[in-house]
Design the sequence.
């Protein structure tokens, strides 16, 4: 039995060696480990400049995992620049948006994590809160002094996310300073933190497009409810599965 192939997008960072700067694809190993543990074959997708090749990349995989990373440029969702924004490399931004659009257009099963959630929301026409403390305050820190923290999220019933994790409430790791402000077209909110911040969204209808603001890949294999997200992606990506 062939395991479903799950594509994972990479980040792009500039490295310096011997006085010369060069770009390098990077990805935390937890993403690929989680896919492997969930029964899939992780396939790393490098950033490409020709958008026509994105569809050819997607021809090689059964499902897609959008990883986290630096911030999207605020101009993409009509917001002014902010001194706390750490923008991603422009090449990754262009590629990531094209990759998300293509996957949604083709109904390819998709799991988006942290910055991946924000990317899906923006590519569907939504907006982001540029810096949470400015608009929400810090009664519940979503990132403490730049470091991850933990908090609870409340999950909406009758959602795909609820069916996957099988819980009304979930303790998550939190490492973000942005979040959904205005929901993109075709999306629904599936979880919030106690301060009202959107913590998960998903696509309406039959397409498997689940997006979470936390980092479940860092919580497996010790937490079955977080591994379940990757297992659901792998199952939905199996050509022989009836799950959508």
Sequence:
């Amino acid at each position: 039995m062939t395991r479903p192939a799950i594509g994972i997008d990479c980040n792009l960072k500039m490295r310096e060696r011997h006085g010369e700067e060069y770009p390098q694809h990077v990805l935390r190993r937890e993403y690929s480990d989680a896919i492997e543990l969930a029964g899939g074959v992780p396939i790393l997708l490098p950033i490409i400049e020709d958008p026509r090749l994105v569809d050819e990349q997607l021809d090689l995989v059964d499902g897609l995992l959008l990883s986290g990373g630096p911030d999207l440029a605020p101009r993409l969702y009509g917001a002014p620049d902010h001194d706390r924004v750490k923008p991603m490399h422009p090449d990754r931004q262009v590629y990531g948006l094209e990759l998300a659009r293509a996957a949604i257009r083709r109904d390819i099963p998709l799991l988006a994590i942290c910055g991946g959630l924000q990317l899906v929301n923006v590519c569907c026409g939504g907006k982001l809160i540029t810096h949470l403390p400015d608009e929400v305050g810090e009664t519940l820190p979503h990132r403490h002094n730049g470091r991850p923290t933990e908090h609870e999220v409340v999950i909406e019933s009758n959602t795909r996310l609820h069916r996957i994790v099988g819980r009304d409430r979930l303790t998550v790791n939190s490492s973000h300073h942005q979040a959904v402000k205005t929901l993109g077209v075709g999306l629904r909110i599936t979880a919030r933190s106690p301060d009202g911040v959107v913590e998960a969204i998903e696509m309406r209808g039959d397409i498997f497009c689940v997006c979470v603001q936390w980092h479940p890949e860092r919580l497996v294999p010790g937490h079955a409810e977080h591994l379940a997200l990757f297992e659901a992606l792998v199952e939905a990506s199996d050509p022989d599965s009836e799950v959508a």
User: Anything to note?
Assistant: Helices lie at 29-37, 52-58, 90-105, 115-123, 132-135, 160-165, 224-237. The mean pLDDT is 92. Residues 4 and 40 are 5 Å apart (CA to CA).
